[in-house]
Design a protein that fits this description.
CATH superfamily of one domain: Gcn5-related N-acetyltransferase (GNAT)
Strand order of the largest sheet: 1-2-3-4
Largest sheet: 4 strands, antiparallel
Oligomer: single chain
CATH architecture of one domain: 3-Layer(aba) Sandwich
Number of helices: 4
CATH class of one domain: Alpha Beta
Structural class: alpha+beta
Helix content: 25-40%
Shape: globular
């Protein structure tokens, strides 16, 4: 079970975690040729000129064990939707302890605090997000033309 030493931290909030966070997110989602892409995206997001984008890490006893991002564009065909939840990952030995749920909820809370009504995601993973309350929104296509399911979830924002 996860102890009370678990923290969900926005990288814009903690410059001490920035370098480790960049490396972690890149290792989870990047390739050997795109480190600069992730570094640039996360560094610019950390300047915090707006609520979105933001990159988050889950830390347990000071070690990063998961990540998620709230971004303006997930490089898919649904350019009419904003913002996107992306880069969700939890280390295998920490799964099934609701850490992914806590990461997503932090991003949803921040979006709600910024006055955003819905957050979207695209995935080919089935059944995981439905269990977390996400609803199918249709199909979107990545840059190679492959279809993915688009999901949406209300943030809970009350005007």
């Amino acid at each position: 079970m996860v102890s009370d030493q678990l923290h969900i931290i926005g990288l814009s909030e903690n410059n001490n975690l920035l370098a480790k966070g960049i490396e972690y997110i890149w290792k989870c989602w990047g390739s050997e040729t795109n480190f600069e892409f992730y570094k640039d995206a996360i560094l610019n997001a950390s300047q915090k000129t707006a609520a979105v984008p933001e990159f988050y890490v889950a830390t347990l006893n000071g070690e990063i064990i998961g990540c998620v991002a709230l971004i303006t564009n997930d490089l898919n065909s649904r350019q009419d939707l904003f913002p996107w939840l992306a880069c969700l990952y939890v280390e295998e030995n920490f799964r099934n302890q609701n850490i992914a749920g806590m990461l997503m909820q932090r991003a949803l809370n921040d979006a709600a605090n910024a006055g955003i009504l819905n957050v979207y995601l695209s995935t080919d993973l089935e059944n995981f997000y439905e269990k977390k309350g996400w609803k199918k929104n249709g199909v979107c296509y990545n840059m190679e033309g492959s279809p993915f399911t688009a999901y949406e979830k209300p943030t809970g924002f009350q005007s």
